[in-house]
Specification:
Largest sheet: 5 strands, antiparallel
Bound molecules: flavin-adenine dinucleotide
Strand order of the largest sheet: 6-7-12-10-11
Shape: globular
Structural class: alpha+beta
Order of helices and strands: EEHEEEEEHEEEEHEHHEEHEEHEEEHE
Number of helices: 8
CATH class of the largest domain: Alpha Beta
């Protein structure tokens, strides 16, 4: 236990794209007691001319490392899970930021707590979950978010953020925006329930439950069904490097969506508040990229949204393919795609 420092650290095993980059300096934070020492070390480094804020690393499953990062990296390894508070059916749990997300989901289910079942098997850590407000199968983190604790790595001071402070949006939060990179999330509190309010109407959940002959599902049955669907549909980063969906589904105005759907019959659209969400995967496939391979970079053969590393792609190669896709979609559909993963060592796409 403690604060572990490593110079010239290999990053290949620390990002799910499997990009073979190296970090000038990597700190691994295993205890909150070491935060003052970490903040001081980072200030020292900044004093030696390091202008960029540190990069915080969880499971590396939502990152594209385009080039060797020059900023120091802080790898989050704080552990701990507990029930904080229970009133009637409502239960608040707290998880340290370095806990892995899917084991947290399974732990809550083992405690008889429902709410996170549709978010089963999302890779990564608890601390990263609020950063992009993770979502899957009709549920987002914000649906169960209570608050989080974070430390400003510049000053070493801590504060709590409630849902309003986090300004959650679709795959978005205040932490993804300029100036917020200094906040190190240390723990997250979630609001769960002893009574399950199951969300079964998204994707193939009902069909999967029917296939397993389950007529009165529990929250654990739903997590199992979601996990089976995900295993079937998504490429495993242990087998082929990827960061899940590379592009967000764009949100456009209703008028633009109607005009587009008339011009491009079959374009999947879903209402989302005042706007309409359109399928990025469908547009990418229509532009002919599904299954394409350029050197070691590629688009998965079954998922047009998933960019993959066929072995030894550099981050720049993946980024070049992503730019090509973005330009082709903009030309044909007049829509600018936005990348979901954070790009390190190059401008955001
Ligand atoms: C196969 C696959 C499937 C996926 N499916 C989904 C899905 O269904 N839904 C979904 O939303 N996402 C999905 N993702 C993306 C990813 O799993 C999530 O975004 C996850 O929350 C990232 O966690 P991480 O710990 O790996 O974060 P990292 O990739 O390490 O970091 C991501 C961002 O969060 C920041 N960060 C990480 N930890 C902290 C912290 N403690 N404090 C402050 N900032 C921090 C990093 O600096 C970076 O900006 C998928 C990825 C893969 C590979």
């Amino acid at each position: 236990m403690g604060l572990v420092r490593q110079a010239d650290a290999p990053l290949r095993g620390l990002n799910t794209f499997g990009i073979d980059a190296r970090a000038r300096l990597l700190w691994r934070l295993e205890s909150l007691d070491d935060l003052p020492q970490l903040c001081e070390a980072l200030r020292d480094d900044a004093g030696k001319g390091q202008a960029q804020p540190p990069l915080i690393l969880g499971g590396g499953s939502n990152l594209l490392i385009a080039d060797d990062p020059q900023q120091p990296i802080v790898q989050m390894a704080l552990r701990g899970l507990r029930i904080v508070h229970e009133v009637g059916d409502a239960v608040i749990i707290e998880a340290a930021a370095g806990e892995a997300w899917d084991p947290l989901v399974r732990w809550t289910l083992s405690q008889g707590l429902a709410g996170l079942e549709n978010l089963a098997l999302i890779p990564g850590t608890v601390g990263a979950a609020p950063i992009q407000n993770i979502g899957a199968y009709g549920v987002e983190l914000r649906d169960h978010f209570e608050s989080l604790d974070a430390v400003d790595l510049g000053s070493g001071t801590g504060r709590s953020f409630d849902a309003r402070d986090c300004a959650f949006g679709y795959r978005d939060s205040v932490f993804k925006h300029a100036g917020a990179a200094r906040w190190l999330v240390t723990s997250v509190r979630l609001r769960l329930s002893r009574t399950a309010d199951l969300k079964l109407d998204y994707g193939e959940i009902r069909a999967e439950l029917a296939e397993a002959c389950i007529v009165a599902p529990t929250a654990t049955d739903v997590a199992d069904a979601v996990s089976r669907i995900r295993r079937r549909k998504l490429p495993d980063p242990a087998v082929i490097g990827n960061a899940g969906s590379f592009f967000k589904n764009p949100l456009i105005e209703a008028e633009q969506a109607t005009a587009l759907a008339t011009r491009e019959p079959g374009l999947p659209c879903w209402p989302s508040g005042d706007q309409v969400k359109v399928s990025a995967a469908w547009m990418i496939e229509r532009c002919g990229f599904k299954g394409m391979r350029v050197g070691h970079a590629g688009v998965h053969e079954r998922h047009a949204l998933v960019l993959v590393n066929h072995g030894h792609a550099g981050g720049g190669e993946i980024l070049a393919l992503a730019s090509r896709i973005r330009d082709a979609v903009a030309t044909r559909f007049g829509i600018r795609l936005e990348a979901e993963p954070v790009v390190v060592g190059a401008p955001q796409l």
